[in-house]
Amino acid sequence: MSKNFPKARGKPSVCWSVFDIPNQEKRLAELEAAASSPDFWNNPQNARAAMRELSEVRETVTTWQSLMRRIADSLELSSLDDESLRPDLDSEWDSVEAEIARLDFESIFTDKHDHGDAILSIHSGAGGVDAQDWAQMLLRMYMRWAESRGYKVEEIDHTDGEEAGIKSVTLTVAGRQAFGYLKAEKGVHRLVRLSPFDSAHRRHTSFAQVEVLPQLEDDDEVVINPTEIEIETYKSSGAGGQNVQKNETAIRIRHIPTGIIVTCQNERSQTQNRENAMKVLRAKLYELRVEERAKEIAALRGDYVKAEFGNQIRSYVLHPYQMVKDHRTDHETGNTNAVLDGSLDDFMEAYLRANAGAIT
């Protein structure tokens, strides 16, 4: 858009058709009417789904209505031909352009789970202590990124490294489109640096696996037969093996048909740990189902490539030069400190735009 505002009054003649705002407004009215019905909560599951949709549609409509008012006000001021208003108008138009670009990008989130919360796990891989330290660095990076977006992060499982860092950690990330953004991070992340744990200060390469799952809102999406799981309890422990709790509050669940194992130990309540572990297990089973379907489609196309550990999606090089490069899109930057401090949006956007409609 140009900063030269058209001299017009009234409602701006900007095209919003790609966002289908009139139908969104109509849907909002329908949902609000349904929510006010006396028998709305007779079916709690349907009611919860409707309330989630109501919240999302209301936010979309409110955002666009506010944006249209800002544009109308700017057009009105620009028609006054008052040069003293030009700096403020230019600043406002820059802000409007940035907001429209953001909304345009977020229109690619079409999967039913894209607008919901996410489960993020980080596992240290090849590289020994350096890999465990690298997993800790990634945890900090994602925490900073989530903080910058106002997301709520809760740690539900954590295993410390033997000397430094972490072996694994699992987080829930709650916020609008958390899964839509974070799914771009799924895969192996490689670090190249001079090792702080090597007395000779030699260059080391370390790997960590990032796993991203959607938080399923409805338990009915994945039904787990109680006879197909084994549940164990044990004492949660912190660094050095010190017991956090004297009681066996930690939970380990094994899904017998698939062999998937989930642990959760960060809550003081065994019941809460069990609920969190079941939440992660459902998400893993859902992801397994999605991957199997994608594998079948890819096999038919003849383009299926097995995703094995070591096939990194992104490299973070701190020595002998500074660079972060995503191998899927070739997007890169020399500002490694910014990336490790959570500046990930450009990498996420490059990948999500390149794969719009092709990833879940």
Which helices and strands, and how do they pair?
Layout: H1 21-35, H2 44-78, H3 86-106, E1 118-124, H4 128-148, E2 152-160, E3 166-174, H5 178-182, E4 187-194, E5 203-214, E6 229-234, E7 250-255, E8 260-264, H6 270-301, E9 312-317, E10 323-326, E11 332-333, H7 336-340, H8 345-354
Parallel strand pairs: 4-9
Antiparallel strand pairs: 1-3, 1-5, 2-3, 4-5, 6-7, 7-8, 9-10, 10-11
Helix pairs in contact: 1-2, 2-3
Would you kindly provide a written description of the structure presented here, covering whatever features stand out?
The protein is an alpha+beta fold and 360 residues long. It folds into two domains: 17-106, Release factor (Methane Monooxygenase Hydroxylase, Chain G, domain 1, Up-down Bundle), CATH 1.20.58; 115-303 and 310-360, Alpha-Beta Plaits, CATH 3.30.70. Helix content is 40%, strand content 21%. A hairpin with a 5-residue loop joins strand 2 and strand 3. The longest helix has 35 residues, at 44-78.
What brief labels describe this structure?
globular, Methane Monooxygenase Hydroxylase, Chain G, domain 1, eight-stranded mixed sheet, three-stranded antiparallel sheet, 360 residues, alpha+beta
Principal-axes shape call = globular
Q: The biggest beta sheet, please?
A: 8 strands, mixed
Helix residue percentage: 40-55%
Number of domains in the coordinates? 2
Strand fraction band?
15-25%
SS content category: alpha+beta
CATH top-level class of the largest domain: Alpha Beta
CATH-derived architecture of the largest domain? 2-Layer Sandwich
Unreliable residue runs: 5-17, 239-243, 304-308
Count, helices: 8
Mean pLDDT: 85
Assembly context of the chains: single chain
N-to-C series of helices and strands: HHHEHEEHEEEEEHEEEHH
The count of DSSP E runs of length 2 or more, i.e. the number of strands, is 11
